Amino acid sequence: MKFLIIGGDAAGMSAASRAKRNMPDMDVTVLEKTHDVSYSACGMPYAIADGRRQLDELVVRRPEVFRQRWRISSSATWHMPLLSVRCGTPC
User: Fold this and answer.
1) How many whole angstroms separate alpha carbon 40 and alpha carbon 53?
2) Which of 1, 62, 68, 88 is packed most tightly, with the most Cβ within 10 A?
């Protein structure tokens, strides 16, 4: 079975992780518009307020971790303007 998730932020990666826990053999792919799939959104105000902090400190897990540890593949810089549910392909 294949499972496609559009959006690799907290909810998307949580859904991907849960899918793999429930069905380890499932082929899970996450499409994300940015290069970051797991970061601390709650920490953003603190990082922005303190100019000495690096934004990389907000990254919790990089895509490679999901790929290596849980076999969840992700595709960065993917933009999905419209998806036809009927045919299941980008329009």
Assistant:
1) 14
2) 62
